[in-house]
Amino acid sequence: MTLRIGIIGCGYKGSDHIDRVANRINGATLAGVADIKQELAEKYAQKYNCKHFETGEELIESPDIDAIMVVTRPHDTHVPFVLKALEKGKYVFSEKPLSTSADDCKRVVEAETKIGKRLVQVGFMRRYDNGYRQIKKAIDEGTYGKPLLLHMTHRNETTVSDYYDNDAIVETAIHECDIMHWLVGSDYDKVSCFIPGAQTKYTHEGLHDPQVMTFDTKNGIHADLEVFVNNHNSYDINCEVVCEEGTIALTSPIFTQVKTQERAQTSIPQNDSFRFRQAFDSEIQDWVNGVLADHLNPTAPTTWDGLMACVAADALEKSRDNGFVKEPVVLPERPDLYKN
Ligand code: ISE
Q1: What is the model's pLDDT at position 253?
Q2: Which of 65, 144, 170, 174 is 20 to 30 A off residue 99, Cα-Cα?
Q3: Where do the GFO/IDH/MocA-like oxidoreductase domain residues begin and end (predicted)?
Q4: Domain range for residue 191?
């Protein structure tokens, strides 16, 4: 069987996934697209010879669509589409964050728990990145002893003008909210967010840049994170884990080195689509394989992971607004469906 995928949202990330499903994913075909901007959906429908739906709801309901990818913006538009897909009993992939509010994520947890089967996968693609996977393996196997500290940086070259303080957390640091606890295998105890006095002149009204965050897990591991989204440099993601007997860190994937005129230059990624291309391809292939087997990979990011990251993000926002104190991360009870 070839899985007929419908994609809702044809913007920056949506068009990247459209190209991926149409050209690089085995066992699936791009069957339809929808976007609030009709001309955009029409453009991709024509380019890839697939169906154009006027609304996301129509796409979800169509008998010609087996599974759905939700890549809409703003991010609080994900959950209504995800719930609709669940109502129709269809598998759905939601880009990160699942929502901007933990309460909305809880509605998805409730709906999926009622069905009693995992139908949702959340787009925390870093879990599929070869570098992060090597770090996790070393931690799980205790190769360098126990992990003690993590130092992480999340830098973007520049932001759009309607990107504000909360986006630095719920859109950007949400990746670390997920990856940090996944790497060390422990839930969060407390988190904090601090605004340093020195701010870049390249930021705009409503956005503090850079920001510094901390994460403390229940098993005592501490992480610091720099979020700097106007670094005027490159898409620069770093993660170093300090263990008892060594450190292990990501390197930026190097694609070419040019040597000329007594200089050597290596290219560095400009954006996430380039830096995490292998991770995005692997996560969508994993989702498609799971849907075709009618059983999502138990290690794929779940609705619960989406909720957990949002609860941590809420606590980070609270800390930033309440004078940078450490805020507890309080999760509801984890339903059996999400216990591996
Ligand atoms: C974007 O949505 C992403 O997911 C990128 O990975 C992140 O670096 C960027 O800050 C977000 O805006």
Answers
A1: 77
A2: 65
A3: 132-248
A4: 130-271
